Amino acid sequence: MNKQRNTTLDIAKAICTLMVVFLHAGENNTIETYFKVICTCAVPFFFLVSGYYLSLNVSAGKREYASRQLKKIGALFIISNVLYATCLSILMLIFHDDLAGFWKKCLTCESIFNFFVLNESPFGYHLWYIGAILYVLFIFNILISKNKINRVITYMPLFLILAIGLGIYSKCLFKDNFPIYVSRNFIYVGIPSMAIGYMLASVLNKKQCLHRYAVLSIIVFSMAIIVERFILHRLEFMSTGSIFIMTVPLAVAIFIFAATDEYVHSSSVMKLLADIGRYDSANIYIYHMIFILVLGYTVSSKNVIYIHSKALLVFVLALALSRGLQFAKSRYSKRKEQTV
To answer: HEC profile for the chain?
Structure first.
């Protein structure tokens, strides 16, 4: 496999970023509910990509890659949580919401424990991913330095089983519906998903034929996850969780399809998607909830056009913010160079 950056993988990242936005902003009618089930593969896919690039860099002798990523994600973790704490406080002050009650809830021992141990940010539920990937990168960095990364791969199936059992299937297995952060954290989602991506980096180098089977797998797993959700709903076993049995297999199929694709994408649309996946996906993930919060306070939820275009609108607004921040950063860097 070509070790240069894979544009199809970047295109897939852009599409999965839109899936994440749809998960958070999409309307819950029957059709969109089942599409949301397919979208649950998006976050595991991002962990897969992180593990994949980590493995490629380690194999190339670039051990400093993990440390650089740690510093980058660590900065995002602090900035994103401070940003959302500030935004929520401002919105509550403007719209006379219960600001004191909000902060009192955020500073309870349970909330602090969930934040630092189970990645459940009190300021934005989507920020769990930033904390989870930070923790997983830290763990992988230690294991790689001690040549013990295979230990994670050994326990990977157990983590995924626990993610499913303590999440979506908790009512079926334990007669109880556990809070989502019990199963959606760095242990049960982050570690196994990144381990799969790390492992696939070496496997995909040897098996180019996997690409043609990935397309069929995407179709089969997409249909299977819809059926899985339908059965759980009909049997009244639906619990709070983010991982279905077919969620990670679908993410893996999409990842294999993208990672083994050698087609050169020359169309302007594909180039735009590749740029979004490469340069904007992290920013869109972090910032899109700001627009959901603001629109929730300012736009009527009864507006039919707004309801069905909300996800796309939020995605475009978050993309515009990402590009604006990148432009400002570029201009600042140029001015700093000129003054020096």
So the answer is: CCCCCCHHHHHHHHHHHHHHHHHHHCCCCHHHHHHHHHHCCHHHHHHHHHHHHHHHHHHCCCCHHHHHHHHHHHHHHHHHHHHHHHHHHHHHHHCCCCHHHHHHHHCCHHHHHHHHHCCCCCCCHHHHHHHHHHHHHHHHHHHHHCCCCHHHHHHHHHHHHHHHHCCCCHHHHHCCCCCHHHCCCHHHHHHHHHHHHHHHHHHHHHCCCHHHHHHHHHHHHHHHHHHHHHHHHHCCCCCCCCCCCCHHHHHHHHHHHHHCCCCCCCCHHHHHHHHHHHHHHHHHHHHHHHHHHHHHHHCCCCCHHHHHHHHHHHHHHHHHHHHHHHHHHHHHHHHHHHHC
* Per-residue pLDDT reduced to its tens digit, 254-287: 999 999 887 778 899 999 999 999 999 999 999 9
Here the tokens at position 96 are: 């006379």
- Residues 59-104: tens digit of each pLDDT: 888 878 988 999 999 999 999 999 999 999 999 999 988 999 999 9
C-beta neighbour count of 183 within 10 angstroms: 25
Closest CA to 49 of 252, 275, 231, 340: 252
CA gap 137, 186 in Å, rounded: 10
Q: Which stretches in the chain have pLDDT values below 70?
A: 1-4, 205-208, 301, 340
Closest CA to 42 of 24, 65, 54: 24
